[in-house]
Design goal:
This protein is mostly helical and 450 residues long. The protein has one domain (18-446). Helix content is 75%, strand content 0%. The longest helix is centred in the N-terminal third of the chain and has 36 residues, at 3-38.
Length: 450
Amino acid sequence: MTEKPLIKDKGSQALKNLGSKAMIGMMIACSTLEWMGIAALFSASLSVLAIAAGCAGAFGLAFLNLLVTGKLNRMLKLLPSFAFALSGYILLIVVTFIVYVINQSEMNIITRGISNTVYQLLPLLLALGFAFMFGENGIYYAFVGVAIAYGLVVLMTIKTFGLGTMIHDWFAMLRGGGDTKAVRALETHTFVGGMGFFIYYFAINLKARKYTWIYLGVVMVIALLAFKRTLILSAFGSVALYLILNKLEKTWSQRVARFVLYTTLAMLLLSCFLYLLMIKSGLFYQLVEESGINTSSRAYIYRKYENYYELSFGYIGKGFGWVERNAKEIVGPNAPEALHNEILQLYIELGGIGSTLFFVYFIVGNTLLLDRRYGFAIGKLYGCMSVYMITYSYIANGVLSWAISTAIWVCIMGATASAVNVDLFNSDTKSVRLQSSPPTGRKADKNPKR
């Protein structure tokens, strides 16, 4: 009498496990497709389609799962963190629209500028899908898609240039032998910019999960192949701040750790404007020339834009996407579509007030919102990323205005681990890190002993 139900239960469990693995596989396929689009492995139009399909597919599977399981409460717990990310992009759209109207831009320019901004909302759908389905585990599953997509980038580079040429050019670049086509193919700027967030996340979770060191190793290899040594240093700057805050929480109090975090964020914001002042005043070029630093044509490119902006809080800006549209006309036919300095580029495009609002919201505003909504553990998780976001943006693009989606992605999933707590398919998997340092919010400050 008791054997039949047991067999039935085993069959049901096996079917459930099969369905779980199938769902994980489909979600990883969606992540891979999205990152293949970001890496521009297709034509321009097909890349956009791949990003849209990957993001919509992940969100669609999550929505289907919501309808089947009826776990509406789980989704409702996710929405506040998703809203924080969304509101940042809404701010970018509003500022862009105001700038275009003040500059009396043509309607096709306004439409194109806003559509470019809306297009960047798509990765948030992918984030929400993975967060709903797998909680914090979603970061690991989604990264598998990243690794597969970059693996395809490497294979395409080998196919085009040959393995020997790729290796030779990489070491030539390492020795300072100049840029090469093979190295440029591996760089994939927009793609690689998000790797710093994964380095940061996996590094602070090395002890939380058994195989995290493998994920960290893979993302480090991606960054090194793309020749992004500064990216790695900036990411570990975020790791250092996170570890310092953890130590302060244990030896002093959460109040002290929170004070240090927000003081650091204020200093990072101040550094952005001091950096702009150095460039506009010419001090940046003087320091570069006197120290003999090779900026890989960055100083030359910055100078080309000097007459197109002024350093003033009242400076209106050119509108989001302006640099990309006018780069070849201003710099030359072989000009990159980005300034390789996202701080300066966003200032030129959004203006004095617009760029200030953008920086303050994404760096301090999101940290505050996550801190108050989910507690200091999640606010700290996001806030420490700011070290990477700002320092890497001094010399690169693709972090603040595009790969910021990846930062929010990590944040949403971290918030999920706190609010939802477990993987929808594996209730035994929880974050050791968040268990040992639970988000306790402002109330924790009342306890002097931590």
